[in-house]
Amino acid sequence: MSPLKDENTDKSQKLKAEDYCVEFRILAKIYEYTEIKKKPIWFSRLVYCFRGKIFRNEISKAEDRLYHWGIIDKKYKDAEGLWTCCYLIEDEAVDFARMLYEKINL
Asked: Which of 1, 61, 52 is nearest to 26 (CA)?
């Protein structure tokens, strides 16, 4: 075995979703809904998606941080018959969100 190669640095291995911070996991889920499924996503849907994995208050703080960092935006839309504050990914952050979505196993 080469002293320069570490057995634990296999680049092809995907990290588990729990290995990423809450903000990145939420951004990947928002990307999945808005870009892949083409559906709106809002706070209660995020809470439902992460039930048993992330606490509600952590989701709230993380989406607030993403908003203040300028990665996501909030817009009121008609979602399933109700006007709801939905999340959208800013144009500049779409490539970053796509990269996270491809790396995280949600």
From this structure: 61
> Which tens digits make up the pLDDT trace of 46-63?
999 999 999 999 999 999
Distance set, CA 10 to CA 5, 38, 60, 62 (Å): 10, 33, 34, 29
Q: If you search the block for the tokens 């994995």, which residue do you land on? A: 53
pLDDT band at residue 2, thresholds of 50, 70 and 90? very low
Q: Are 86 and 75 in contact (CB under 8 A)?
A: yes
Distance CA 21, CA 24 (A): 6
User: Is residue 6 left, alpha or beta, with left meaning phi > 0 and alpha meaning psi from -120 to 50?
Assistant: beta
For the question of whether the overall pTM of this predicted structure is more than 0.85, the answer is no
**Residue 96 main-chain phi, psi, to 5 deg:** -65, -45
